[in-house]
Amino acid sequence: MIECLNLSKRFGQFTAVNDLTFTANKGQVLGFLGPNGAGKSTTMKMITGFLEPSEGRIKVCGMNIEDEPIAVKQKIGYLPEGAPSYGEMEVGQFLHFIAALRDIESHLIKPAVESVISRVNLENVYFQKIETLSKGFKRRVGIAQAIIHDPEVLIMDEPTDGLDPNQKHQVRELITDMSKDKTIVLSTHILEEVHAVCDRAIIIAGGEVVADNTPAEMENMSRYHHAVSFVSDLNVDLLNKIKSMDCVLDVDYDSRLKETTVFPTQGLFIFDEVSQFLKKESIQVKSLKMEAGRLDEVFRNITHTAGEREVVK
Ligand SMILES: Nc1ncnc2c1ncn2[C@@H]1O[C@H](COP(=O)(O)OP(=O)(O)OP(=O)(O)O)[C@@H](O)[C@H]1O
Ligand SMILES: [Mg+2]
User: Fold this and answer.
1) Is the Cβ atom of 203 under 6 angstroms away from ligand 1?
2) In the prediction, which pLDDT does 162 show?
3) Average pLDDT of the chain to the nearest whole number
4) 3-state SS of the chain: helix, strand, coil percent to 5?
5) Of 58, 142, 195, 276, which alpha carbon lies 20 to 30 A from 160's?
6) In the chain, which residues fall in CATH 3.40.50.300?
7) Nearest residue (CA) to ligand 1, atom 16
8) Nearest 5°: phi and psi at 191?
9) Third-level CATH fold of 2-220
10) Are 95 and 104 in contact (CB under 8 A)?
11) Ligand 1 touching residue 40 (CB < 6 A)
12) What is the CATH topology of the domain spanning 228-291?
């Protein structure tokens, strides 16, 4: 559905995106991660035809964006960074305007507007001017205009930025629901979001792809993968005893949270050993759990060393 081949974008001497290649298929939610200034928004602007690439090719739904720019734009719904819109318009008026721009047949405009209003919960602000809305509501209007024509491809630049936890949850559910018959590319700085909605995540740093994996594969790269954590009062003796177990590589203790993390020797499952040890020593613990891995740590490792690494596949 989306094919980007050797995509680059230069602004004068500065290379914002450098030789990016990836594809996204129908039914997939692809997450773009990366530090500020990595090139995520620039890449999205090129896919949606807002910026022309300096080099490379983009195909959407089998069409070359250079050859068929309007046909491609018809297939795409786009939530740009910051969700810009027309502040002086009322929400309902703006969505009717967008529906007409999107060539929705006149008798279908009202149901289309009503449907998106209810999907992103805008009922109470229907007659309110967009410039008077709070940040989260503005973003919801941006999401509504992006999906109003039921596009096959949805490009969303930080869709949940500024939303409260309830709305974040709702928008993630909406994304998951829509993903069944669409291709969705979203960018986010919220790593738990990658876990919640993405089938695949591409980490971009310095304009280049530095990782392209499923969220589970990324968690596997974490030193916390299969580590065992628990909250308890532990003395140094007990910590040293745990550390000396054969199956244990290392132990971390966070004195503020009173959280101990036990790291396994390469590839081992140590949950049973650790829980038996705690039982034997009669140590009372809260929240004993085996960790899947921590995406924030993987993100930091990958992006700190960006430029020195090969793409992790
Ligand atoms: N029109 C432009 N002219 C010059 N430089 C630009 C332009 N647009 C973007 N850039 C630069 O390109 C780089 C990538 O910007 P981009 O907005 O794509 O980053 P991003 O990954 O979306 O970051 P963020 O997480 O902060 O949204 C930045 O260094 C930015 O300053
Ligand atoms: Mg951006």
Assistant:
1) no
2) 85
3) 92
4) 35, 25, 35
5) 58
6) 2-220
7) 39
8) -70, -30
9) Rossmann fold (3.40.50)
10) no
11) yes
12) Alpha-Beta Plaits (3.30.70)
